[in-house]
Design a protein that fits this description.
By secondary structure, the chain is an alpha+beta fold. It has a single domain, classed as 2-Layer Sandwich (Alpha-Beta Plaits), CATH 3.30.70.1230. Helices cover 46% and strands 23% of the residues. The protein is built from seven helices and nine strands. The strands form two sheets. Strands 1, 2, 3, 4, 5, 6 and 7 form a seven-stranded mixed β-sheet that branches. The protein has a two-stranded antiparallel ribbon with strand order 8-9. Helix 4 packs parallel to helix 7. The radius of gyration is 20 Å and the shape is elongated. 31% of the residues are buried.
Length: 237
């Protein structure tokens, strides 16, 4: 993969490869269509509040779940007490990852930057974390009778404001979700599968490279084919 930097006006935009997960909370639009005006009496007010609870309440619940997951992952410090002092720094480095999460209306976006010269271990940590979050929290959502549908793929993108991602990577993930997924599932794009396979067959030069290789194997085993032959995240597995 080739990474490059480009400039726009006075701001520096760094374009690089990202994994992007685009998740849509299903069933929101029908409820929102019921709201045509502000309530004018108690009955309308009660219906208005119930509709918001049924729509925004689901959005808020899922955003909170993803936020808490990534906050906990970011703040977690690995227990290195059983690691020989000579290898502790390397062990801590092997846990490094970087991922971004934000919400847009009734959609949730996760982005993992893949640039780096660390034999891909931090990128694979981020990808593994994103897959676990997507699969695990989708089960929490189903328990609350909320269905999620998503697309996951790798492509070029940049951060434009805060953590917001812009570029072909986002379009790829959105296309999978909106045009191909059809029902509650998480489709895996060709470029994501190719990237995972590429890391899995790399010849590591360091122990950290070996970590990346093993993580790639775990991630590949989380991908199955649906009945139409499309790769999807095995969130039940």
């Amino acid at each position: 993969m080739t990474d490059q930097t480009t400039y726009h006006e006075d701001d520096k935009l760094l374009f690089q490869h990202y994994l992007v997960v685009f998740l849509d909370i299903l069933g929101q639009r029908r409820g929102l269509r019921e709201i045509k005006n502000l309530p004018t009496n108690d009955n309308e007010k009660n219906r208005f509040i119930k509709t918001l609870q049924d729509t925004y309440g689901k959005v808020d619940m899922l955003r909170t779940a993803f936020r808490n997951y990534f906050k906990a992952a970011e703040s977690r410090f690995p227990d290195n007490s059983l690691v020989h002092p000579e290898y502790r720094d390397e062990f801590i480095a092997s846990q490094k990852s970087e991922e971004y999460f934000y919400g847009f209306s009734d959609s949730i976006i996760i982005a993992v930057p893949l640039m780096g010269n660390d034999e891909n271990y931090s990128a694979m940590n981020g990808i593994f974390s994103a897959l676990v979050a997507t699969g695990g929290i989708s089960l929490i959502a189903l328990a609350a009778k909320v269905a999620l549908r998503g697309g996951l793929d790798v492509g070029v993108a940049a951060q434009i404001e805060g953590k917001e991602i812009y570029g072909p990577a986002l379009e790829r993930a959105y296309y999978l979700e909106s045009n191909l997924a059809e029902y509650p599932r998480f489709l895996i794009g060709k470029e994501l599968f190719t990237y995972i396979h590429w890391v899995e067959i790399q010849q590591p030069r360091t122990r950290l490279g070996e970590v990346a290789k093993n993580l790639a194997k775990f991630c590949r085993e989380m991908i199955v084919q649906d009945t139409a032959g499309r790769p999807m995240l095995d969130f039940l597995g």
